[in-house]
Structures are given as structure tokens and as C-alpha cells.
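Write out this protein's structure.
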Amino acid sequence: MNDPSNLSQAPGRHPSAALRPLLWVLLAVGIAGNVVVSRTGVNVIANVMLGLLAVGSAAALIVQHYKTRRR
């Protein structure tokens, strides 16, 4: 049964398209947090973890782009 309020079932949308805004938010948080932690010199581990968050979310956005693009 099709539910019009369910965005993942909308015509022309890939089921993982709802994940894209979350990945963008994680990317922004990772970059902003990395800048703040780098400037304050709080903790190297926090800097590395936020950097990995930014790189991971960017990689996931790239993978999702290539999986869902039109040919």
C-alpha cells in the first residue's frame, strides 16, 4: 500500500534519499567541530574523531550520489 506521506516511497526517489540531509548535517558538524577543536587545542583525539566524521560523511555522500544518479 502506498502512503503519500512516506517520502521514501515517492516516485522517482531512491529509498536512501532520506539519508542525504543527515549526511550533510554530519559533514557540517564534523567540519565545524574540527575547526573549533583545532583552534582551541582541546584534545587531539577529539580532533581526529571529528575529522573522521567529516571524511566518512563526505565519502558516504559521494557513494550515495553515484548510486542514485540518473544515467
